[in-house]
């Protein structure tokens, strides 16, 4: 399930990192990408990020077992090409709050708990049948 999207940008134009701990700034994805690339390209970028984000968890869980939650980091180059940078099993959640998306910040905490509950109940049903 793809729940949240936020962007971060470096405070320095020449910097290759946008890491929030390194001085990056969080923004809501759609408005930021539209301002940088135009509406049409921004929508293509968001679709690519969504599609890859929806596909990756099941592929990774085939190899590594249940992961619960993932933080998937993408980069976008000046031409609008999307790059997968890394996948984190313990994602940071502060980007949503810093981007002003309090709902996404709350859901980023709530959804892993709900998923854990779902897995527990599923296991209990198997044991009791």
What does this structure look like?
It is built from four helices and four strands. The radius of gyration is 17 Å and the shape is elongated. With 129 residues, the protein is of the alpha+beta class. A hairpin with a 5-residue loop joins strand 3 and strand 4 (82-88). The strands form two sheets. A two-stranded antiparallel ribbon has the order 1-2. The protein has a two-stranded antiparallel ribbon with strand order 3-4. Helix 1 (29-37) packs across helix 2.
Please outline what is shown here.
51% of the residues lie in helices and 16% in strands. The protein has helices at residues 29-37, 39-64, 94-98, 102-127; strands at residues 6-9, 25-28, 71-76, 82-88.
Could you give the topology of this structure?
Elements: E1 6-9, E2 25-28, H1 29-37, H2 39-64, E3 71-76, E4 82-88, H3 94-98, H4 102-127
Antiparallel strand pairs: 1-2, 3-4
Helix pairs in contact: 1-2
Count of runs of 4 or more consecutive helical residues:
4
CA radius of gyration is 17 Å
Structural class determined from secondary elements: alpha+beta
Label the overall shape. elongated
**Averaging pLDDT over every residue, what do you get?**
81
Proportion of residues in β-strands: 15-25%
Helix content: 40-55%
Main beta-sheet strand count, sense and barrel state: 2 strands, antiparallel
Q: Can you list the strand order of the major beta sheet? A: 1-2
Model regions low in confidence, pLDDT < 50 over at least 5 residues: none
Keywords for this entry:
two-stranded antiparallel sheet; 51% helix; 4 strands; elongated; 16% strand; alpha+beta
């Amino acid at each position: 399930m793809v729940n949240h999207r936020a962007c971060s940008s470096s405070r320095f134009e020449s910097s290759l990192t946008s890491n929030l701990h390194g001085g990056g700034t969080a923004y809501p994805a759609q408005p930021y990408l539209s301002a940088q690339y135009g509406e049409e390209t921004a929508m293509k970028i968001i679709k690519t990020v969504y599609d890859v984000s929806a596909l990756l968890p099941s592929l990774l869980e085939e190899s590594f077992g249940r992961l619960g939650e993932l933080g998937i980091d993408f980069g976008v180059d000046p031409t609008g090409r999307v790059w997968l940078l890394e996948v984190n099993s313990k994602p940071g959640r502060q980007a949503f709050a810093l981007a002003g998306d309090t709902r996404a910040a709350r859901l980023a905490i709530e959804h892993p708990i709900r998923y854990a509950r779902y897995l527990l109940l599923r296991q209990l049903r198997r044991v009791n049948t």
